[in-house]
Amino acid sequence: MKPKLRIAMAAVGLMAFSTFLTIAPAALAETSDSQVLENMTIQGIDSHWNDAITTAQALEAAVKHLCSEHSDQSLTAARASWKNAWVAWNKTLPYLIGPAGHMADRIGKPCNATVLEAVVASNEFAGMRQGNDVRGYTAVEYLLFASQDSQEAVANERCLHLTDITAEITARLTRAKTQWDQDYREAFLNAGNGQPYLNPNEALSQVVAQTMNIIEDTVRERIGFPTNFNNGPARPDLLDAPYSKTSLEGLQAIAQGVASVMIGDGTHGLLNLLATRDGIAHEKDPGLAKDIRKQIQRLDKNLEKLKNKKEPLYTVIKKKPSALKGVYKDMSKLEDMIAEAAMTLELDVKKGLEAQMLRQ
Question: Which of 92, 177, 233, 351 is the most exposed place for a label (fewest CB within 10 A)?
Answer without folding.
Answer: 233
